Amino acid sequence: MSIGAILLIALNLPAPASRALKSMTREFIAPLQSLGASVSSRFRNAREAIMARGGLPEEHQTLRRELVDLQHQLLELEELRRENLLLRRQLNFVDRSPRELIPAEVLARDISGWWQTIRVDHGGNPAVRANQAVTTAEGLAGKTLEISGRTAEVLLISDPACRVAVEIGDKGAFGILSGQGLSWRGSVLCRVELINKNIPIERSDPVYTSGLGGIFPKGFLVGYIEDVTLDENGLHQSATVRPRANLSDLRVVFIVTETDDREDLR
Amino acid sequence: MNRLVMFVALVLCAMAQAVLPSWTALGQAKPPLLLGGVLYYALTRNNSQVIEAAVIAGLLHDSLGLIPLGFSVIAFLPVALLTNNYRDRVFGDHWFTHVMLGVASAALVTFILYLLLVSSGARSGIRMPFVLSKALGMSLMGIVIIPLVFKCIERLDYLLGNVELKEV
Question: ipTM value of the model?
Answer without folding.
Answer: 0.80
